[in-house]
Amino acid sequence: MKPNKTTMTRLKFLIALPLVALASAVMAQASFPTRPVKIVIGFPAGGPLDQHARLLTDKLQTVLGQPVLVDYKAGAGGIVGAQEVMKAPADGYTLMLANTGVMVINPALYSKLPYSTLKDFVPIARTAMQPLALLVNPGVPAQTLPEFVTYAKAHPGKINFGSAGSGGISHLVPEMFKSATGLYMVHIPYRGSAPAFTDLMAGQVQFMAESIPQAAQYHKQGKVRALAVTSRERNPALPDVPTVMETRVAKNFEVVGFYGFLAPAGTPKAVVDKLSDAFKQVLALPEVRNRMVSQGADPAFLGGDEFAKFLSDEMPKWATTVNASGARVD
Q: Does residue 135 share a domain with residue 123?
């Protein structure tokens, strides 16, 4: 029995539907973006990630031809923001700006983390590397890092170091430094870097590792003393401060955090590539690079595939440090 005209028409319609949907999706990707793009930050406004986002968004919206908005979803060390992006539609209109802690430290720090870095997100672009400065209270009788190591070894257990919280990069870098130099220092965790800095300046803690922008500001004001930076090269924001490797107290000591943008898993490759190229264009602008350097960060673009490999390589390194420190947050 031959199908009638009505049946044939329905069959043709059903066959055409997927083709129409595919064509629509291809056209949407080709014209992306057609509305504002939102960048989610899992920390409060005013912090280093917010500063980094604001540096890029004006130029980014010029390249993309659409407004770029910043949305703050602070809480639980960046986890709240990560979940917000993970559950967003995978269309490229919701991105996450994340740092070392959110992407590679949290997976080792939390036994029940509600997201997987490499499964729930697709990397778009690494935009900066962020070295830290090793700081002491001005009352500590050490003008150089070797002098501090000598002083700390002569006073075991009497040197306290502050951090923005257990398991964060400001906690783990001093743990790495302790292991590399054989020092014994006591960790004092705070709820954020601001109260930790307050106690460092007051002498309640004697040592701290913190991102360059804040460290440089307080160092230049004489409120803290920067003894070294953790990057391989000296930082332009602290040009007179040597690297740890220059001081020779710890061989090959280089620890640098990073900033990068990610989208929900499943975001079409054409959209990811377009966003990645937009960040590449912005980071190539001299004014953006100069401002980033003045803030203490190093422009360090990686495209999506390279950023994915970078994350995969970083995760076991930080997991080793987290496990050695004994830090857990559950």
A: no
- Bond preceding residue 286 cis, omega within 30 of 0: no
Residues 198 and 296 both lie in one domain: no
Domain of residue 198, residue span: 131-247
* 227 in the same domain as 147: yes
Give the alpha-carbon dihedral of 87, 91, 95, 101, to 10 degrees.
50
What one-character DSSP code corresponds to residue 29? Answer: H
Helix (H, G, I), strand (E, B) or coil at 122: strand
For residues 127 and 258, give the distance between their C-alpha atoms in angstroms, rounded to a whole number.
8
Please report where in the chains the tokens 């000296």 appear, as a residue: 234
Residue 76: DSSP 8-state = G
Same domain, 218 and 311: no
Nearest to 53 by CA among 305, 291, 303: 291
Three-class SS state of 270 = helix
pTM recorded for the entire structure: 0.80
pLDDT digits (tens, 9 = 90+) for 7-58: 666 666 666 555 444 444 445 457 999 999 999 999 888 877 888 999 999 9
pLDDT above 50: residue 290: yes
More confident position, 160 or 236: 160
